[in-house]
Give the backbone structure.
Amino acid sequence: MKWIAKILLWIIGVAIPVVIAACYGMPYKFSKTGKVVDAETKAGIDGIQVTCVQGGQDEDVAFTYSGDFTLWYDIPCDTLQIKDVDGAQNGEYQDREIEFCESCDTLSIELLKKG
């Protein structure tokens, strides 16, 4: 009778998680969405580069479209670097570095215009 209990515990503890992982796959990247906006008008800004910095090195990069971005990363970032990479095309904005918020659902980042 004990061997039946051991088999059932093995099925519950090992076999079922393996089947679930095989069917749905294991996540290998995480994502964080956000919006970069003008600090005065609150309008989304195109052409902004959002970079995940981990241990002093740039790891992953995303670009804004209408201010929206999705950043895919393997491990949580230490900080995010936000840079205006399109020059004057969509207005010129000051670069910024902020702390990464793993627990935040979405990130909202405001940039000030240069000058």
